[in-house]
């Protein structure tokens, strides 16, 4: 039985993960952490990791960047593997995550979807083939409660594209309202839309002369992210210390 500590358990995604896990054999959420401890969860909820009394095998963090430092310090202290599904980390926090991966297994992903991780491979192939002749634009859409913009997934897509181009040559341009000039070839445009209850939509547009190619992923339900997070937790269980990504699960 893989025993999970769920950070951010009373948030929307935390609740979906907890409910999804109830139907998973060999996995159980045994404790949660949240700033709001009042809940009807079938497991105890604490306001701070230091209060956790249960034996843990893996931590899933689906909370907020402001909660990262505390849960990461706790994971390292206790030698617990941790799945980090939160986005919007600062550069300093990214360095802390990388440092932690030297002593514990860490899986960091901006998106827990299988489809998105396939999309990362597809856009890399397209970018290599079309480099220099097609302009690249990324458009992401999310619900009106999402705090960070652009999404971590949009940035992961841009990074994936840049990783296969000579010298990581592309610069990121966010929206275009502040720049009154023509587009240059060394740009990846990144645009954010926030509205309604959109779960998540990412489109990569390759625009050439007289033709366009679109690679698009639409999330219909948050349940797919819960499934991915639990797969990541099972994958990380008993892994050696290191820095892992979602693509490692499917290789």
Detailed description of the structure:
The protein has 251 residues and is of the alpha/beta class. It folds into two domains: 2-108 and 222-250, Rossmann fold; 114-219, Dihydrodipicolinate Reductase, domain 2, CATH 3.30.360.10. 31% of the residues lie in helices and 27% in strands. It has seven helices and twelve strands. The mean pLDDT is 93.
In total, the number of domains comes to 2
Biggest sheet layout: 7 strands, parallel
Q: Could you give me the name of the CATH homologous superfamily of the largest domain? A: NAD(P)-binding Rossmann-like Domain
Order of helices and strands: EHEEEHEHEHEHEEEEHEH
State the separation between the terminal residues, measured CA to CA: 24 Å
How big is the Rg? Answer: 19 Å
Compute the average pLDDT: 93
Structural class call reads: alpha/beta
What's the overall geometry? elongated
What is the assembly state of the chains in this entry? single chain
What amount of the residues lies in strands?
Answer: 25-35%
Q: How many DSSP E strands?
A: 12
The CATH top-level class label of the largest domain: Alpha Beta
CATH architecture of the largest domain: 3-Layer(aba) Sandwich
Briefly note the CATH topology name of the largest domain. Answer: Rossmann fold
Low-confidence stretches: none
How many alpha or pi helices? 7
